[in-house]
Amino acid sequence: MVMLGKLNEIDINAVASYVKSRQNKDGSFGGDEYNEVDTRFSFCALATLHLIGRLEDTVDVEAAVDFVLQCYNFDGGFGTRPGSESHAGQVYCCLGSLAIADCLGMIDKERTARWLAERQCPSGGLNGKLFLFCSQ
Fold first, then answer.
1. Which phi and psi (to 5°) does residue 120 adopt?
2. What angle do CA 117, 119, 124 make, to 5 degrees?
3. Contact (Cβ atoms closer than 8 angstroms) between residue 22 and residue 41
4. What is the largest CA-CA distance in the chain?
5. Per-residue pLDDT at 7 exceeds 90
6. Which of 111, 98, 110, 34 is nearest to 67 (CA)?
7. Residue 104's CB: how many other CB atoms inside 10 A?
8. In this structure, are residues 103 and 67 in contact, taking their beta carbons and an 8 Å threshold?
9. Which of 35, 109, 126, 134 could be cross-linked to 30 through a Cys-Cys bond (beta carbons 3.0 to 4.6 Å apart)?
10. Residue 121: its pLDDT value, please?
């Protein structure tokens, strides 16, 4: 709707209210009524609120950033939740979340860039995580 210039056709307050209802006390976001926690949901929540212009007045952005930073691993990647292994998909979501919150300066960008560069396989393809091999 943003790309079409038709935000006026959705109930922005209802969208903001729903996204707010998905935030947990630790700053994470649950994806559905079962409350599965994953950094993908953090990114979706922050991106949605940013796109509709309701980021700062709807959720606890500081807590959301703190949760994402807890998912930052020693190798420079990010996991789905604190303590989980690094995966390229989560790196995308977490970097997106931090960028939306203007907090990219809170991580070691060189370490993350190195981790991402290591995802390239000899065949030229990319893998999503350590020890996942590319097809020849």
1. -80, 130
2. 95
3. yes
4. 50
5. no
6. 98
7. 14
8. no
9. 35
10. 84
> Do 55 and 100 contact (CB within 8 A), yes or no?
yes
Task: Indicate if the alpha-carbon torsion angle 94, 96, 97, 102 is positive or negative.
Answer: positive
CA atoms of 17 and 41, how far apart (whole Å)? 15
Q: Which two tokens mark 55?
A: 């980021």
User: pTM score, two decimals?
Assistant: 0.91
- Phi, psi torsion values for 44, nearest 5 degrees: -60, -45
- pLDDT tens digit string along 87-120? 999 999 999 999 999 999 999 999 999 999 988 8
* Selection from 34, 29, 57 nearest residue 45 by Cα: 29
| Secondary structure of the chain in HEC code, one letter for each residue | CCCCCCHHHCCHHHHHHHHHHCECCCCCEECCCCCCECHHHHHHHHHHHHHCCCCCCCCCHHHHHHHHHHCECCCCCECCCCCCCCCHHHHHHHHHHHHHCCCHHHCCHHHHHHHHHCCECCCCCECCCCCCCCCC
